[in-house]
Amino acid sequence: MKRNSLKCKIGPSILNSDLSQLYAESQRLLDNGADYLHLDVMDGHFVPNLTFGHPVVKCLRGKIPHAFFETHMMVQNPEQWIEPMADASVNLYTFHIEPVLKDVLPLCRKVREAGMKVGLALKPGTDTEAVKQFIDHADMILIMTVEPGFGGQKFMNDMIPKVQWLRHNYPLLDIEVDGGVGLNTITACAEAGANMIVAGTAIIGARDQKSVIDSLREIVERSIQKCSCKM
Hints:
Blueprint: E1 9-10, H1 22-31, E2 37-42, H2 54-63, E3 69-74, H3 82-87, E4 92-96, H4 104-113, E5 117-122, E6 140-144, H5 160-169, E7 174-178, H6 186-192, E8 196-198, H7 201-204, H8 209-230
Parallel strand pairs: 1-8, 2-3, 3-4, 4-5, 5-6, 6-7, 7-8
């Protein structure tokens, strides 16, 4: 029997945390069981909001040297920030394909050459067909389950078929969901095949962060186990 090597990974988004206490908030999430930190970088162009850039990520890395960092680059020109984020010791560089459809493959190569893993992100209006030709060049595909740019939005259940299609066609691919994911929506995500879970408000705002992270993990691991038994 072929074993499914997928692993559940819970990566809280710090977007809705107290950014004036970024290190303390991030460390608390890791202490409570987070597998990685999901760092939302917005440029005010690709999305209408601004967050922080590579100087902040580099400072945070100085405080937290061993954690896995994913930067979710909601930016118009992802190439511009590859080297700065690599210099900040980012592990996974996830960029949106929409503004760079003609340059996705060269960008994947540049991200890898800079020493980072490659994540490709899709806005809700982007079909999986648009990313199909690039999947073999990526380590992870991110399906946005809200419109990117702001935290606290309502989960878009009609994004679930994208996750299902990816899992059906790429059984061992890391598939991440981000946006409105919490205890009320995690089952749909997990059963569709998502194994990397970004949750912001649901974890950040919880009285007991560890309990929420543990519950999310349990549901995802149960779905992975079911999938493994079928293989």
